[in-house]
Design a protein that fits this description.
Helix content is 26%, strand content 26%. The chain is α/β, with parallel strands linked by helices and 439 residues long. The longest helix has 16 residues.
Length: 439
């Protein structure tokens, strides 16, 4: 039941709280699609598709592509695509992580992407991800999540680090990031103790546990703050907010359409996307090719479809922070709760160009959605998204957009509560448009 003035933001916070890892996020999106009547396809099977059919396909449990087939052939109507990513920066558990230090057990972790490391200290950290284990002679996977806080990276008291407030908190990545797990037990060595902890949580025999991919996360649930609850805070807003907005827009796009609507959600964006399930891999191209081939036995059909397609790359944007005004271009102060942001970079770190900018702006204007434009300072490099690599691989027009947020890549990020509904509305309007928009 919705209890807040910003129901879409409340939905988002609940989605993030249920999705402490990219595997959980993908599983949760798959469940929403299934509940809405979408059929799951397997890449290893032959596909038999018909107009109007709604399907989704998952690659390696953390990347997902959903689509609703249009009434016209893709070669004539094209694809209307939205893409986002399921992963977030943070800390990942090493293969042999547990070790004893003066009677305490610590876990060795590896940095994933570019998190703000200091923000992970003094937090009640949870652990979530997937296990690989033996089941009746075969390998199987299982998602796990520890509901209660499991570990902590305790800070050093200021009495022992007198310059922390003048020089900042600098952490040695090898020796100071390992979280404190427990007191060392006398019965089992630390590594076996940790393996047993995982096996017990998953309900399997410790001897059957083979490997894992696990990440730490802030166990504090998402929240509203501000006098009117006009702001939200949670981990993984970058980029589960875009995932939730895109999926909600797709599920709300119930009107029949000539074009085929597609939403892609990819893992590994924060580490470059160069993997078999990342946006730089073949997943999207393979899926679109198979859709085209299901309707037309013509090698030119998919190329015609690409020429008539449009991609929105949805990833979060940097809101103006009043404490650090020198970090922003004075002419482009992005404000939270003021609507979606078009992200622009002359060096194509974002894919936006004049035509795609104009098309998306017009779509938003017709839907009465305010639009902002972000450009980095000329003396400061900007980040990038899955937009450039996706547009280049597919050969289609693209734009980069996102909602404004503060503290990007912190263990706990922040944004405007009103913006999520505006992004859903913008993406819903975009998915309702013909992919080959005239200009």
């Amino acid at each position: 039941m919705t209890t807040h003035a910003y129901p879409e933001a409340e939905q988002l916070l609940n989605f993030i709280d249920r999705s402490p890892s990219p595997w959980h996020a993908t599983a949760n999106m798959a469940q929403q699609l299934t509940d809405a009547g979408y059929q799951e396809l397997k890449e290893a099977d032959n596909w038999s598709l018909v107009a109007g059919q709604r399907c989704f396909v998952i690659r390696d449990e953390s990347s997902l592509i959903a689509f609703e087939l249009g009434s016209e052939l893709p070669s004539g109507a094209g694809f209307t695509l939205v893409a986002a990513h399921t992963d977030s920066p943070g800390l990942r558990v090493k293969p042999n992580p547990a070790y004893q230090a003066k009677g305490l057990v610590r876990l060795g972790v590896e940095i994933y992407g570019g998190p703000i490391l200091a923000t992970f200290t003094d937090r009640d950290l949870g652990l979530a991800g997937r296990l690989v284990y033996r089941l009746q002679g075969k390998l199987s996977t299982k998602l796990i999540r520890f509901e209660n806080p499991l570990m902590r990276i305790p800070n050093l008291a200021i009495h022992l680090n007198r310059e922390v407030n003048s020089r900042g908190l600098l952490l040695d990545k090898q020796t100071q990031l390992a979280p404190l797990l427990s007191a060392a037990g006398e019965e089992l060595p630390p590594q076996q103790q940790f393996r047993k902890l995982l096996a017990d949580q998953a309900g399997i025999d410790e001897a059957d546990l083979v490997s894992w991919e696990l990440n730490l996360f802030d166990s504090l649930p998402g929240s509203f703050y501000g006098p009117a609850g006009e702001y939200i805070a949670n981990g993984q807003l970058d980029n589960l907010a875009s995932c939730d907005a895109a999926l909600t827009a797709l599920l709300q796009s119930s009107q029949p359409s000539a074009q085929t609507r597609v939403c892609g959600f990819f893992d590994h964006e924060e580490v470059g996307s160069t993997s078999h399930k990342g946006a730089a891999g073949s997943f999207m191209a393979d899926t679109l090719q198979r859709i085209s081939a299901a309707f037309e036995n013509d090698p030119e059909a998919n190329k015609l479809a690409m020429a008539r397609s449009f991609l929105v790359s949805a990833d979060m944007a940097h809101a103006w922070n009043p404490a650090f005004p020198s970090a922003y271009d004075d002419q482009h102060p992005i404000q939270v709760n003021h609507g979606p942001v078009i992200k622009i970079n002359a060096n194509q770190r974002y894919t936006t160009e004049a035509v795609s900018e104009a098309i998306f702006s017009e779509i938003c204007a017709r839907a009465e959605i305010p639009v902002q434009r972000f450009v980095s300072r000329s003396d400061m490099p900007c980040g990038s998204t899955i937009g450039p690599m996706s547009a280049a691989a597919l050969g289609i027009r693209s734009i980069d957009v996102g909602n404004p947020m503060w503290s990007m890549h912190s263990a706990r990020e922040s944004a405007g509560a009103a913006d999520h509904a505006l992004m859903i509305k913008a993406l819903t309007a975009f998915l309702a448009e013909p992919a080959a928009v005239d200009y």
